């Protein structure tokens, strides 16, 4: 629609610029007659769709995909959706019309049924949570189990009352809900003497796009609120970026980590390894996941070129997480 300049259809300047850059990069040749616009690709290109690349979790996935894509002579285009279903759908439709070789979702699509329908015509691989209701090739982890791992770790350290801090918690962000549910289930086993305070801040796609440090800010601001509750001895951030905000709020309030408060995150992104940060986190094997997602997609791309191809098989690869304990967690202060 952008290339054909169809009347009555509008796109943001940013989307138009990215599409036209892709057209130039692909060396597309367009032949127009009265009834049809024919577009032919001379190179193979895939798209990686993710919420944003500010969080190193997603930028690491993108770079991991690019590492193996380059070895196979395939270029990669990256698109951020900021968790806006409308943007996601528009991107998919636009690049389907460009004869894209395939798509990798770095998160579960906001409309899995639409992506599932499209996967019969276009190779698609999803990196996301375990969800057997979605019939798409998936490289997955169990975020529920990740929550269980952190819950058990904090209970072993004597933390009876903890807080879980997160951006928007809703059905679109299933991984967030599953992490929380795993944490809740673990604490529930220990009875009423154990509790989880849940705090979240709703953010729109526009806010996420316009605020690069939004996850850090959410961790910081919500932590400041929870510090008023003196029974809480540990914090769990929805991810490592939120956990960094929590850490800064604790330090700015005159407390020490982990002497006064312990902190855990999820994803084990590379800054969590740094000695001054030393964050206890859940290892998600991000690079391996990115490599594997591309290899599955490449296999699917090759299959789609066969005349006898039928999209009847679904590949699911699940990675087992592990907890990496560092200096941000220690015994409860009482």
Keywords:
334 residues; alpha/beta; Rossmann fold; six-stranded parallel sheet; six-stranded mixed sheet; 39% helix
Provide structural commentary.
This protein is an alpha/beta fold and 334 residues long. The chain has 2 domains: 40-141 and 285-320, 3-Layer(aba) Sandwich (Rossmann fold); 143-283, Response regulator (Rossmann fold). 39% of the residues lie in helices and 21% in strands. The protein contains 10 helices and 14 strands. The chain has a 6-stranded parallel β-sheet, sandwiched between helices. The chain has a 6-stranded mixed β-sheet with strand order 9-8-10-11-12-14, sandwiched between helices. Helix 6 links the parallel strand 8 and strand 9. Helix 2 packs across helix 10 (286-304), helix 5 (143-156) packs parallel to helix 6 (174-188) and helix 8 (214-226) crosses helix 9. The longest helix has 19 residues, at 286-304. The chain is elongated and about 65 Å long. Residues 4-9 and 28-42 have low confidence and may be disordered.
């Amino acid at each position: 629609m952008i290339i054909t300049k169809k009347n009555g259809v509008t796109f943001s300047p940013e989307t138009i610029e990215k599409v036209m850059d892709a057209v130039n990069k692909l060396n597309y040749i367009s032949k127009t007659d009265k009834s049809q616009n024919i577009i032919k690709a001379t190179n193979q290109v895939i798209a990686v769709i993710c919420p944003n690349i500010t969080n190193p979790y997603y930028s690491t996935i993108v770079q991991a995909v690019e590492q193996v894509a380059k070895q196979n002579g395939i270029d990669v285009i990256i698109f951020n959706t900021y968790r806006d279903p409308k943007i996601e759908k528009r991107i998919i439709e636009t690049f389907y019309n460009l004869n894209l070789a395939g798509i990798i979702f770095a998160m579960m699509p906001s409309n899995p049924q639409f992506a599932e329908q499209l996967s019969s015509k276009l190779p698609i691989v999803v990196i996301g949570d375990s969800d057997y209701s979605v019939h798409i090739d998936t490289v997955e982890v169990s975020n529920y189990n990740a929550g269980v791992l952190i819950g058990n770790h904090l209970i072993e350290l004597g933390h009876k009352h903890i807080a879980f801090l997160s951006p928007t918690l809703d059905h679109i962000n299933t991984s967030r809900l599953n992490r929380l549910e795993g944490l809740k289930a673990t604490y529930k086993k220990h009875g009423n003497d154990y509790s989880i305070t849940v705090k979240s801040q709703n953010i729109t796609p526009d806010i996420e796009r316009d605020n690069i440090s939004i996850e850090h800010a959410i961790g910081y601001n919500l932590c400041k609120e929870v510090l008023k509750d003196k029974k809480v001895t540990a914090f769990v951030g929805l991810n490592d970026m939120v956990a960094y905000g929590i850490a800064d709020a604790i330090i700015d309030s005159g407390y020490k980590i982990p002497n006064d408060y312990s902190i855990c995150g999820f994803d084990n992104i590379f800054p969590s390894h740094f000695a001054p940060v030393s964050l206890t986190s859940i290892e998600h094997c991000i690079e391996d996941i990115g490599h594997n997602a591309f290899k599955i997609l490449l296999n699917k791309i090759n299959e789609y070129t066969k005349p006898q191809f039928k999209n009847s098989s679904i590949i699911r690869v699940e990675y087992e997480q592990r907890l990496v304990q560092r200096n941000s967690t220690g015994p409860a202060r009482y």
